[in-house]
Amino acid sequence: MICSLVKRRRNHNIITLLNTKLVLQTRSYARKSNMILYLKRSNLMQ
After folding, report:
1. If you count DSSP H runs as helices and E runs as strands, how many of each does the chain have, helices first?
2. d(CA 39, CA 32)
3. pTM score, whole prediction
4. What is the CA radius of gyration of the chain?
5. How far apart are CA 35 and CA 42, in angstroms?
6. pLDDT digit string (tens) for 9-46?
7. Burial letters 2-16, b for 16+ CB under 10 A, else e
8. Distance from the first to the final alpha carbon of the chain
């Protein structure tokens, strides 16, 4: 009983870690793509 609870909690922690990593990666990727778009637009403006 306790063993299964610990395992479940560990899996939950791993899943949350993966989710936070994914969220951070997608955020950084979105920021980069936004920066690239902004730079392209500014270059087009010039």
Report:
1. 1, 0
2. 10
3. 0.54
4. 20
5. 10
6. 888 888 898 999 999 999 999 999 999 999 888 887 66
7. eeeeeeeeeeeeeee
8. 67
DSSP letters along 14-35, please?
A: HHHHHHHHHHHHHHHHHHHHHH
Measure the CA–CA gap between 15 and 28, rounded to whole angstroms: 20
Which structure tokens are listed for 22? 């994914």
Report residue 32 as tokens: 């980069």
Q: Token digits for 36? A: 């690239």
Structure tokens at 25: 């990666």
For the record, the structure tokens of 15 come out as 């899943």
